[in-house]
Amino acid sequence: MEMSLADCWGSAPASPIGFEGYEKRLEITFSDAPVFADPCGRGLRALSRQQIDSFLDLARCTIVSQLLNKQFDSYVLSESSLFVYSHKVVIKTCGTTKLLLSIPRILELAAELSLPLLSAKYSRGAFIFPGAQPAPHRSFSEEVSVLNGFFGGLKSGGNAYVMGDAFRPKKMWHVYYATEEPEQPMVTLEMCMTGLDAGKAAVFFKNSANGGCSSAKEMTKVSGISAIIPEMEICDFDFDPCGYSMNGVCGPAASTIHVTPEEGFSYASYEAMNFNPGSLVYSDLIERVLSCFRPSDFSVAVTIFGGHGFAKSWAGGAEAGSSYVLEDVVEQELPGGGLLMYQSFSAVAPGAVSPRSTLDDGWSSDGMEAAAQGEDTCIWGVEKKVAVKGVAAA
Question: Pick the catalytic residue: 81, 102, 226, 245?
Fold first, then answer.
């Protein structure tokens, strides 16, 4: 009997220390199907719940809540989130999930819908409990090997980058990217926060005497999450005895938050994607997110396709105010005219002064800079390498 990829990798060990908050994020994009194969243009949104469950089962997670609109389908998972657009699927899973094991099933379902593969992007921070991760997530090199097996044949080849300061391994950012052709204009923000303020974290404990909330909706309001992007319609979920997840939707834009509030390994993540970058002030959004959690350390990764004119303020560095000091900043060009900017911050010690970030704004665009200029609504329609501090090495 032929063994599946999942069978080959075995079972996942549980961490004896605490829950792994850092997510693995996988984004796979497809091109249009022939008109005769998909006359309504539904693409991946034509997948049934049973078909979606079939690849989530391989990743070791399940759907606990959902929120759908005209542009895409949003699912809160037992371990993070899933977003299904007509031509793109984005999965974030935390804990000891086996996210990469879902790839063959996703590609199989897309092939059944006659959707040609366009690109793939995988990203994650440095795990809090790396020793508890199961195969194929025991190391970034192992993950890259699996990803290259599926996406290394795309025109760009597979490109892997480790970004950050090698002397701060806990703050390294890992990215894999492969593409067949340049991406459509889009900005994606990923934030990872650790060492949450105890009072802020207490909100995400159910029925706690220290300020906990009894429901997800109460957590969303009391924490300030509902005010980050007020236009977002929110689907939230609380875990027992603690923990929180939410997905926000507005037109084609999505946001998501996941919180592990336990002391000693507290963690929160924030993501926003597919929004109109001219309608959101980068530094203001960062401050609203930070005010919900007040972490001791955080990182920001911004991926841009479409050039400076499209990305507007997002093509510069994040500003975190006087409460945080910028420790590291890396800019990395991606195949297909993309840019990835990674920054890490730490809280300023009492009495210290945080210097203002001064970043070079010299990244050249690929001729798509005029896209979306003048739009002012919140949402709009639309060979392996390793890099340390953005310098690629063979």
Answer: 245
